[in-house]
Predict the 3D structure of the following.
Amino acid sequence: MITGANGQIGSVLTEYLQGIYGHDRVIASDLKSPEIQNARFEILDATNAGALAAMVRKYKVSQIYHLAAILSAKGEQNPLETWHINMQTYFNVLEAARENDVKKVFYPSSIAVFGEHVGAKAAQWSYPDPATVYGISKSAGENWSNYYFKRYGLDIRSLRYPGIVGHQSMPGGGTTDYAVDIYHKAVKNEVFECFLKADTVLPMIYISDAMDATIRLMEAPQQKITIRTSYNLAGMSFSPEEIAASIRKLIPDFSIVYKPDFRQKIAESWPRQIDDEEARKDWTWRPAYNLDKMTEEMISELKKKYQTVSK
Ligand code: NAD
Ligand code: AKB
């Protein structure tokens, strides 16, 4: 069962899980039906504990991928509502899992748990001092994951995703969203207005690598999972001027203008690099994509998508 399945990650993860477990064994859920329905789907507001638990019982759910959340930039518009949604939905998942014999839970954390005192490169055990309500909620969620594992033996596994870049879906209100939007503008031959400064380096990951890491983590034998808060995960790091240069290798006329807004401050509170040594060691993870390889695939896939749309 997936909560928040219509989002940037959920719409892709649903297909990955269908490929592994079978189309009918994956139950996607979100606040409203998706525009294109490719899965067994239920409308579910995950803040509703009774409805969530009823769905777990109805389908005899064995694994929950809890993606529903409000992300960093959108979260700052309404901090208390963001805290409520991010925490209440997770408590409902944890309790439904504990009471209904759910075997595994996946909790997506974020590089947003780190703050300005961490420095340029975040180690696994760097102190989390998040600057956003989103980061505070993710850090709290990590500690609750560890608590439910230790207290109740619930097998919860978690990754601190960097900004995810993919061609299949649009991002939903984060600070790293620009790194998806930029490719859409480039392929449409439009000027890209960037909300971060040219040299703002952030950790990012290509969607295929993010999915690979998620599945590797979830399929690893229990004894290989040594971290029950959340694993650091790294793909690549780049700035807006570096991604623009990578795009120009394929679309030489591409142009970008910089108009930093409130998201600049959020970006500056995050580390530029992530050390994911523990993930690499525990469940043999390696990213396959660097910036140029990701750019090639993004541009080629988006060109196909926009050609199909214009036909
Ligand atoms: P998204 O914003 O694209 O999707 C989130 C989905 O959650 C949306 O479809 C939304 O309708 C749904 N949702 C919101 N409130 C809900 C509720 N009360 N009940 C049910 N559904 C609700 O986010 P995403 O990028 O797909 O991220 C998924 C998860 O991964 C989130 O927990 C996010 O914090 C985490 N994450 C994402 C990234 C990234 O770069 N995309 C990076 C780090 C962590
Ligand atoms: C965001 O920018 O909020 C997300 C994240 C890194 O958690 N993409």
Notes: The two ends are 36 Å apart (CA to CA). The pocket of 2-amino-3-ketobutyric acid (ligand 2) is lined by residues 71-72, 110-112, 134, 163, 174-176 (CB under 6 Å). The chain is about 45% helix and 15% strand.
